[in-house]
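Hi support team,

I submitted a single chain yesterday and got back a structure, but I'm not sure I'm reading the C-alpha cell output correctly. Could someone confirm the output below corresponds to the sequence I sent? I've pasted both exactly as they appear in my results page.

Thanks,
R.
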Amino acid sequence: MKNAELKRFYAAVAALVMASGTTVTAFAEEVADAGTAAETSAAEVKTETSDYSGNFGKDVNWKYDPESKTFTVSGKGRMEFENEDISLAYFYMNHKWVEEVEKIVIEDGVESINDDAFERFASAKSVSIPESVKEMGYDCFCNCISLEEVTIPSGVTIIPTFAFKNCNELKKVELPDGLEWIGSEAFKGCCSLVSVHIPEGVKRIDEQAFKHCLKLREINLPESVEQYGENIFDWVDDNEYLRIKVDGPNGRSYAYRNGCLRFEADGVVYSDTSGICGEFVDWSYDRETGVLTFTGTGMADYAPLYSEWSEKVKKIIVGEGITGIGCNGFSFHFPGVESVTLPESFKGFTEDTGCGLSDLAITSIDLPDKMKVINQGMLQNCTKLKEVKMPAKLEIIGDFAFASDSSLESIVIPEKTDKIGEYAFDACGLKSVTFMNKYVRIDDTAFYLCDPSMVIIAKKGSTAEEYAEKHGFQFQVLGEEKKVEDNKVEAVETDVKTVALAAPVQADTSTTVKLGDADGSGVVDISDISMLSLALVDGTELTDEQKKALDVDGDGDVDLADLAKLRQYLSKKIEKL
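Hi R., thanks for writing in. Yes, this is the structure output for that exact sequence:
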C-alpha cells in the first residue's frame, strides 16, 4: 500500500507541474502579444504626431492643425536648421499639407524667420509676426500667392531680397519706422499692392524692389533715402498712373533721372508736361505754343522726360539763373526746334561728349559770353544753322562741334580761343573764317571737307596762315581792304592801315550818321570792315561818329557782333543793317 500511494503522489505532482507549465507559457505568450501591440500602437501615435509637429532648431518648435489649417511657430530664439538645404527639402517633401495652410502664426519669443521658411505656403492668406522677430531671411514669404496683408515688426531693419516676391494677392503692407533697407525684388510681382508708405529713416532701396507692382498708384520716397537701385518701379506702358511723392534732393534726382511721369516734389504736383530737372530747376511745356521752358537756378542736370510731344517742340527757352545743362542737353530729342534762347548766366553743357544742341533745326544761335567751351558735337548736324554769335570768353572749340553744318558760311573765332579740335568744322559750308587770336592751335582735321575756296582771315604770321598754306585754303591778312562782288571775294593788295589813314572821315553835313559807313564815304564797303577789324584787333581809336556808325546792332557797344553783321550785309546775306 505504501508503495502504491507513493506512486500516486508522484503522479499527482507531475500532473500539477505539467499543468502549471502550460499556464505559465500561455501567460508569457499573452504578455508578449500585449507588448507587441503596445509598441505598434505607440509607433502609430509617434508617426501621427511627427507629421504635424517638429522643430526649427533646438529652441523653436512648429505644429500644424489640419482642422483650422493653421501653422504655428513657437519657442524662444532663432528659427533655423542645422543643415538648411537638406532640412528644408526634407520638410517640404514629407509635409505635403504645407500647400493647404491658410494661416501662419509666429508666436512671441521667436526672434528670426529663416531663409525660404514659408516659400511654398501657397494658400496662406494671413501671417502674424510678433515684435520679438528682429530678422527676416531671403525668400521667407516668396511665392505666398494668397497672402493678403502683412505688418513688419518694429525691430526689423532690413527686408531682404525676394522676401515677398510674387505675393500676388498682397494688398497692404505696413513697414516699421526703424526700417533702413529694402532689398532687391523684395516686393516684385506684388501686383495687387495699391499704395506703400516708406518711413523716414530708410536709406537704401535696391533694384526692382517694387517692379511689376502694376496696381501701385501711390508711394513716397523720403528724404533719408541715399541710394536707389535700377528699375525700382514700372513706368509708362506698364504703370502710367503711378504717382510718387518725393522729399529732398535725392528724391528729386531719382524722379527725373528715372523718367517718373507723375510725381509730387516739395508740394508741387508735376505731370507729363512739367517736371524737375535739377535740384532747383523746373521745366514746363506749352502744347499750344510748342515752347519748352526751363526756370530756376543752378544746374539743369538732366533734360526732361521725352514724351509724344517732343517732336512738336518749336522753341526752347532757358531762363536766367540757370548755369548749365547736362545729360545730352537737347540733342536728338527735339528735331523740330527752330529757336533756342540761352541766358547770360549760362556757362555751358557739362557733359564732354555727345551733348548740347546737335541735330536741331535752328537757323541762328547766340552763345552767352560766359561759355568757355563748346563741347564735342555741341552744334553738330544743325544743317539749317546760318549764324553763330560766339562767346567772347570762348577758349576751346571741341571735336565735331560744328561738323556737317552745311548752311554755315562764315564765322569769327574770338581772340581768347586757344584750341580748335578734330573735325570741328568738318563738311561745313564755310566761305570764310576769321581768326582773332594769332596763335590759336588748329587741329589738322578741323576744316576737313570744307570747300577749298574758303578764305581764312587772320593776322600775318599767325598759325591760321600756316594752316591755310598747308591745307590749300585761301588766306587774307586781317584788316586788308576787300570788295564783295556777286558773292565772290577778290583780293585787293592795299594795306588796310594805309586805306584807313588815307580815307579820312568826311565831314558830316547832316544830323545823322549812316549806319555802317565808318569812313564817311557814303557807301558801306570793305573799308568799313577793315576799320572795325583794326579797332578790335589793334585797339585803333575810333571817333564818336565812327563808333555810332559801326554800332550796327544798336546795343551801344562796338564789338564782334557788329563785325559779323557787317560781313553778312556785304555778302548779301541780309538786305539792310
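A quick pointer for reading it: The CA atoms of residues 194 and 346 lie 43 Å apart. Let us know if anything else looks off.

Best,
Support desk
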